[in-house]
Amino acid sequence: MIPVRGYQGFRVAVLGLGRTGLSAALALEAGGAEVIVWDDSAEARAKAEEAGLHLHDLSKQGAFEGVVALITSPGIPHLYPEPNPIIAAAYAAGVAVDNDIGLFFRSVASEDWNQFDVIPRVIAVTGSNGKSTTSALIHHVLTDQGKPAQLAGNIGRGVLDLDPPQDGEVIVLELSSYQTELARALSPDIAVFLNLSPDHLDRHGGKGGYFAAKRRLFAEGGPDRSIIGVDEAEGRFLANQMRERAEGGEPVIRISSGQKLSGSDWSVFARKGHLAEWRKGKQIASIDLRDIPGLPGAHNHQNACAAYAACRSIGLAPRMIEASFKSFPGLPHRSQLLGEQGGVRFVNDSKATNVDSAAQALRAFQNIRWIAGGLGKDGGISALKDDLGGVKKAYLIGHSAEEFALQLGDVPYVICKTMEAAVEAAARDAESGDVVLLAPAAASFDQYPNFEKRGEDFAAHVARQLHA
Predict the structure, then answer these.
(1) Rounded to whole angstroms, how far apart are CA atoms 434 and 391?
(2) Does the 11-98 domain belong in CATH 3.90.420.10?
(3) What is the rounded average pLDDT of the residues 301-317?
């Protein structure tokens, strides 16, 4: 645990007692704060009481008397579409609102660092798609090469649950827009921006607000190095800003998947399955990504470029990175190969919760038996019309099955409703060379609590087919 600094002897409130809220409350207590906590869920409150935390109903009149800060969980709206009533009350009372990411950055450095030969560093990764894979890949390369590293944030552990970093250690954080938007302190050593596609727009008041939330990691944090995907206008804008603001050195590494980057600055890009590093107008290194099983498809090649650039930024040699790429197992629910039978592969990409991430999955394979559907987002799957060429048939599930069916054009489909029916039908229809792909292009909340449970259900039904 990383004890929170700066609140010793002060009263601090915590709203939301899930994974991040509980860890924030305990870390605040470890730092000497007087902590009060609240959650609308009776179950969450019971867990907090078991942990020895003091419950205090923050919705009551005068609840913020004597409170200097409110720490809120990322899922609780603080601005759009409207602030949670408790957060609005904190604003009215003049109470500073922060989250666990802000607490982490104000607390991670300690006096012990003065004795270290190599100061610990923080790599923070954000973007619409690929954050988890990129963060996990960076962590895998570091640990595979014998470097001390920890992984946290929107993946794995809460940031305040981490062990205090040791000499030369690297902390890798996956950060969502919900986390970067509110954090009052953001100071990564290396910041990574992958891409931007419309998502969570109601939460951020539109695409501009969504980009602004991610841009804070760079504008507020002032990282020593910015690794920025430039395949969209927002990334090109951000790369230009960070180049202009920095003094000396090579502050920006541009990355891309699908285009060769020109210019004399530092760039890493992938084309036709080959990663290339260029610096000062010369190619420094290259890696053939095509046969790396844990990184299939162009979207994973962008992730590879970002991870490569981050690892190069802390001094790893190209061949060390390449060797570790080859042993990367991939992440569950992200283009995860579950098995093969009779020449038919079964791939779980339950994390493809929007059309952009589903498009990346559809582009990665051919001869697809596509399982899609769930709680569709604005526009459904109409934006995927140019990415359906490899789909032999769609198997539609969940709340938006009928809506999706109307947007498939000439692609054959069957409305299955349930995951079990979809897997059975796709497996029955599949021929050698086909890929049964779960890439829902929709949220999971109509049938599952989260995308992980949806992916686990898919995997369970696939396992029955493989062992039938």
Answers:
(1) 10
(2) no
(3) 96
